[in-house]
DNA sequence: GAGTTTGAAACT
DNA sequence: CAGTTTCAAACTC
């Protein structure tokens, strides 16, 4: 990934050799190539949308599932990641590439490999990430990998494990002597997460993200952390799908915050922030949906328990083959830690799982789609309401139907997901703190952080939601495109972030403090926008929104986009799927 | 930990 | 498509 040696003077400062500059220069070549294939997976609502089981040769584990689109995304992600980030052992590198010696990928030495190799080689003469951003690792570890079911899904159960158990212990900053080993472990985890399901669901990803994996204080770690973190939200999915949605989720609150405080006065710092944002966003792509119910509970459990922390579903009659089962719904297999009875949601019953899944999908193509989706149509946001007040773009795909909970308890999926109710909801007496359907359907969650019940916060287990003051003047131009949605790693909209979007004072970690400090002066506005634009183009799939219509007439539309003015309705009131839907988690076997 | 409540999913 | 049943998570005690 050598970059053309261009000389750019930013604010009088030569950035020619800066990592950011190099990174930026490498952006454009990528975008046109990546988005095309991804779009293919979103062709239509028909079941065909779901990529058939990819019997590729990348992985021999039957627990792995693949999705071509994911590969594309991975590539995009990789290319989106500055070499500096990858320098440490290429941890972020999808194993796929490294293992792509099956001949299916053309030349044996992929770009990635070369990049990795190069990075490794440069390792010694490249400033250590830790040195550059001493605070980053810790932040990443604790803030992004705090959940802990990771073990369950992140790392293959069979893998060598001493690997951090899923027990409710917090991630430790134990250094990994062998970064390669760590990289392998992470790769496995990432790989599994990415391949097992086309789109791991939020819960699933959350689990992955959990802290079972202890990232080493390195840049690579950062990347992985981001992945893991992102995965929290991710709904199973194929990267293919909601890239944007993923971005939203990518709001990882932590990464940038203080990292660059020390050098925030430089253009590079700003650029780095952008890069990180991008990374996070990109990584977030991997995650998406994940319904959060379990995860939260798990978190709570994890909070102070050992193995119990990994408990998952408790299905007794569904055999874990129905959407009642959160594991199944999330696109993941049940684990031993589950308390289910007569479980069929296991690799050994792969055929059954796949068949069942198909059946369900045939009934409802988006059955496995992320429960919370975000409309990232910038045009809508811009045209609709003040950009700073449009968090309403994030809503539950179907909306809730609460009658007694007033949408203030986790029975309500909207509330549980941390999003406001929308016009798609049929709830009664809605009091959703994240946005009542009768008030914020299209206006966004006009709520203040304090409005969000402490209950909810508690329910989310602190580590899921971090309440951090929002920066009063974070340039929207910088943050919006990269992380349009203040969604936590859980795919949940963060209260403070919603506030943030409203232009309220305060800040979120997700907002790079460096930006705040720097304002937009370090990188000219136009340039910054350019960067963001490139990034978005790179990441975005032609089809980034999910407007779906349930085959069985159930409401399955994007609240936000479903505005009558924006989306044609069918006579029966259903809305057309204008764009497409991503391939959702699928138990596509990967042989 | 058992029992209850709740609303999504599944079924009719 | 509406009503009912089933189910498992969320919640309460």
Automatic annotation (TrEMBL):
- The lineage's top-level taxon is Eukaryota
Q: What's the name of the protein?
A: CRC domain-containing protein
Specify whether Magnesium is a keyword of the entry: no
Q: Which UniProt keywords apply?
A: Developmental protein, Nucleus
Please give the family membership noted in the entry. Answer: Belongs to the lin-54 family.
* Record domain CRC: where: 309-435
Report if keyword Ligase is assigned. Answer: no
PROSITE patterns (UniProt xref) = CRC
The listed locations are:
Nucleus
- What's the main place this protein lives? nucleus
Stretches for region Disordered: 88-107, 553-574
């Amino acid at each position: 990934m050598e970059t053309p040696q261009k000389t750019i003077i930013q604010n009088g400062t030569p950035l020619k050799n800066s990592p950011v500059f190099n990174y930026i220069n490498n952006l454009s070549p990528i975008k046109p190539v990546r988005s095309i294939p991804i779009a293919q997976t979103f062709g239509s609502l028909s079941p065909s949308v779901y990529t058939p089981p990819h019997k590729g040769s990348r992985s021999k584990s039957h627990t792995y599932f693949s999705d071509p689109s994911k590969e594309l995304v991975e590539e995009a992600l990789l290319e989106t990641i500055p070499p500096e980030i990858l320098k440490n052992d290429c941890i972020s590198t999808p194993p796929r590439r490294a293992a792509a010696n099956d001949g299916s990928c053309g030349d044996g030495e992929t770009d990635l490999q070369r990049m990795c190799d190069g990075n490794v080689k440069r390792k010694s003469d490249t400033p250590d990430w830790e040195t550059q951003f001493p605070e980053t690792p810790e932040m990443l570890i604790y803030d992004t990998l705090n959940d802990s079911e990771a073990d369950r899904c992140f790392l293959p159960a069979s893998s060598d494990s001493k690997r951090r158990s899923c027990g409710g212990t917090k991630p430790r900053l134990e250094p990994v002597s062998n970064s390669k080993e760590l990289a392998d472990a992470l790769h496995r985890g990432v790989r599994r997460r990415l391949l097992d399901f086309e789109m791991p669901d939020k819960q699933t990803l959350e689990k992955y993200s959990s802290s079972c994996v202890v990232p080493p204080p390195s840049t690579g770690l950062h990347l992985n952390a981001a992945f893991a973190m992102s995965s929290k939200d991710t709904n199973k999915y194929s990267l293919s799908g909601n890239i944007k949605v993923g971005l939203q989720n990518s709001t990882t609150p932590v990464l940038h915050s203080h990292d660059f405080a020390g050098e925030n006065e430089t253009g590079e710092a700003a650029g780095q922030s952008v890069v990180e944002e991008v990374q996070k966003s990109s990584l977030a792509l991997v995650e998406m949906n994940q319904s959060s119910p379990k995860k939260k509970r798990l978190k709570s459990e994890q909070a102070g328990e050992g193995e119990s922390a990994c408990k998952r579903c408790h299905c007794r009659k569904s055999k874990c083959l129905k959407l009642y089962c959160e594991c199944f719904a999330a696109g993941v297999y049940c684990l031993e830690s589950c308390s289910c009875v007569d479980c069929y949601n296991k690799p050994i019953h792969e055929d059954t799982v796949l068949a069942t899944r198909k059946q369900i999908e045939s009934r409802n193509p988006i059955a496995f789609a992320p429960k919370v989706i975000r409309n990232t149509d910038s045009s809508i946001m811009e045209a609709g309401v003040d950009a700073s007040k449009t968090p309403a773009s994030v809503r539950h795909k179907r909306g809730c139907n609460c009658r007694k909970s007033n949408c203030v308890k986790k029975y309500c999926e909207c509330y549980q997901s941390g999003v406001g109710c929308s016009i798609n909801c049929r709830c009664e007496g809605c009091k959703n703190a994240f946005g009542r359907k009768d008030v914020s359907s299209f206006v966004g969650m006009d709520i203040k952080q304090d409005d969000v019940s402490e209950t909810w916060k508690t329910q989310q287990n602190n580590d899921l939601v971090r309440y951090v003051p929002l920066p009063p003047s974070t340039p929207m131009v910088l943050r919006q495109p990269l992380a349009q949605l203040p969604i936590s790693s859980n795919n949940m909209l963060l209260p403070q972030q919603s506030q943030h979007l409203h232009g309220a004072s305060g800040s979120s970690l997700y907002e790079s403090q460096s930006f705040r400090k720097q304002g937009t002066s370090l990188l000219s506005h136009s340039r910054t926008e350019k960067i963001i634009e490139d990034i978005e183009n790179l990441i975005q799939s032609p089809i980034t929104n999910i407007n779906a219509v349930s085959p069985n007439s159930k409401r399955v539309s994007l609240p936000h986009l479903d505005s009558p003015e924006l989306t044609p309705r069918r006579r029966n009131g259903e809305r057309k799927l204008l764009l497409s839907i991503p391939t959702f988690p699928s138990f596509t076997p990967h042989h």
